[in-house]
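Hello,

Following up on my earlier ticket. Below are the two sequence lines again, exactly as submitted.
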Amino acid sequence: MEVQLGHYLALASIIFGIGAIGFLTRRNVLIQLMSIELMLNSVNLTLLAFNRWASSDHAGQMFAFFVIAVAAAEAAVGLAIVVGFFRLHHTVHTDQANTLKH
Amino acid sequence: MSIAAISFFFVCGAVAIASALITVTQNNPIRAAFSLLAHIIALAGLFIGLQGHFLAVIQLIIYAGVVVVLFIFTIMYIGPVPKPESAGRPSFAKLFSIAGMVVVTGAVTYAALGYSPALKGLNTCPEAVAECGQFGGVEAFSAALFRGGVVPFELISILLTVAVVGAIMVARGRLIYREKPRRKKQELSIENNR
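Thanks for your patience. The regenerated structure is below:
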């Protein structure tokens, strides 16, 4: 038995599903941001796996590099929004984020 | 492929899935953040197994060293918050989203497991190219990055600068103080004393 490309893709799909379920069901905004990180990480795993099996260049690894950079920027801005939201409502519960509704 | 590589894949994959599950199910955000750290380290191990040595190091530095620490700083800053009241019964939307994602993920996983193309050997670049290191190492990756991705690389630096400035502007929160000076007088005094 060998580790095939399909195994990596299945693992990445499971991690993406866990992240998506966490993002959809949790109401704590910090956990939701962590779920987004899980999803981005699983996509990075997919990119590296494809690049390992189509290894004529480094295109997949370059994409994963840019995804990591964008994820860092996203985490910075997202956590700043969390801090601002907490200042406004004194909670991290996303159901309280209804200022635009009223 | 040796037994060691196969068991390395399965151990890293099991740790990644287990810590991802703990991350999304944990109620304590600090525990979730540390579980995310374990997940990231397991993924870095998987990257090494995929010949992405440089990206494994980048993953450890950026995610484990920056993003998780930023999460923990934010959790520490916010402190313990009271649990919301309506945490009792799961709503229909919650159950529906769980069921839908389980079905979709199961279908994709089942389809992916049967996909097994042959693994070709790693590319060996021609003798004339000077900076030809190991596939996925720093030399080969940076040569590829600065040949084919210079413009996105520079744009990423602009994006990061804009993100940092935007994060400072959002987190400083001067607009809140200016717009609601009367209504939240009690809370404002607490805020200013912090």
